[in-house]
Amino acid sequence: MKIAFVFICLVVPLVTAQLRVGFYNPTCPQAEKIVRDVVLKRFRTDRSITAALLRMHFHDCFVRGCDASILIDSTKNKSSEKDAGPNLTVRGYELIDEAKKALEIACPETVSCADIITIATRDSVALAGGQNYNVTTGRRDGLVSDPSLVNLPGPTASVSQALSFFTAKKMTLNDMVTLLGAHTVGVAHCSFFQDRLSNFQGTGRPDPTMDPALVSKLSTICGRPNNPTAFLDQNTSFVVDNEFYRQIRLNRGVMQIDQELASDKASAPIVANFANNAFGFQQSFANAMVKMGGIEVLVGKAGEIRKNCRVVNPPPTQKKSSQKRSRVPR
């Protein structure tokens, strides 16, 4: 076990170092603009796409690394990550499809689906008021999508329980508190926090740590049929800012893990800093997103560049014969 740990520590920096800003400049100089145009078009009619892409990016990177395995469709014979419980409400796949289609026309078999997720998420964050940070690219797409590997921190996890997921990916407590700040633009289905409104931990009463006015508001929302959603930041629901941290310091965290960030002695000082330092949060968020985007990436000749983000490329022999019939000129 000790030998394996040392090996990982030596190899991971070498692998992530192969990612770089402007990776596609020589091969597809318009790549990032093509993705940005697709995101902008969607954002103009649906500002919630920022939260959707942030969630997709996180759910992808925290399973097999940032390899776009979350994009692979299930088939009648084989389930994919999309079938895993935490991913059933992930959305935004059609935006990635649109960007990939445009990129395949401009630069066939060049830009990975994993990089599209990373670039699109960055652009959506910037459009929603966050920092327009540089992202490294050069990721390749994975060949495996296994729902049994999807193991993510749930809404009732404690800070220490959630942190174990992050440290396993070489992320710190500060990274975790920062990345959970993505809830500044997110929503949650009532089923994820319903117990806090009326039967917290089997007491038959609301969670005493939740602001009573928020309990009342959410109870009204969640009294509707079909498991509705509520904003995790009740004030600036579509803006990437530090308001989320201000809200949880006022006991207005919707999900239990969010509220515990403000009360746990380990994370509370970080929350207080972000609540009072808008610029500091933006800077930390950009840094944490770049760091997350380097988790267990495939580079060089590992993996592949998918032509369709929803399916793994056909075997080489099959691919070669189909290219003779319909290859797009470079």
What is the secondary structure topology, with strand pairs?
Elements: H1 2-16, H2 31-43, H3 49-64, H4 93-106, H5 113-127, H6 159-167, H7 173-179, E1 187-189, H8 195-198, H9 212-222, E2 229-231, H10 243-249, H11 256-263, H12 268-276, H13 278-292, H14 316-326
Antiparallel strand pairs: 1-2
Helix pairs in contact: 2-4, 2-5, 3-5, 7-13, 10-12, 11-12, 12-13
Summarize the structure.
This protein has helices at 2-16, 31-43, 49-64, 93-106, 113-127, 159-167, 173-179, 195-198, 212-222, 243-249, 256-263, 268-276, 278-292, 316-326; strands at 187-189, 229-231.
Structure overview:
This protein has 330 residues and is an all-alpha fold. The protein has two domains: 16-150 and 293-314, Peroxidase, domain 1 (Orthogonal Bundle), CATH 1.10.520; 159-291, Peroxidase, domain 2 (Orthogonal Bundle). The chain is 47% helix and 2% strand. It contains 14 helices and two strands. It has a two-stranded antiparallel sheet with strand order 1-2. Helix 3 packs antiparallel against helix 5 (113-127) and helix 10 (243-249) packs across helix 12 (268-276). 42% of the residues are buried. The model is unreliable at 1-14 and 325-330 (pLDDT under 50).
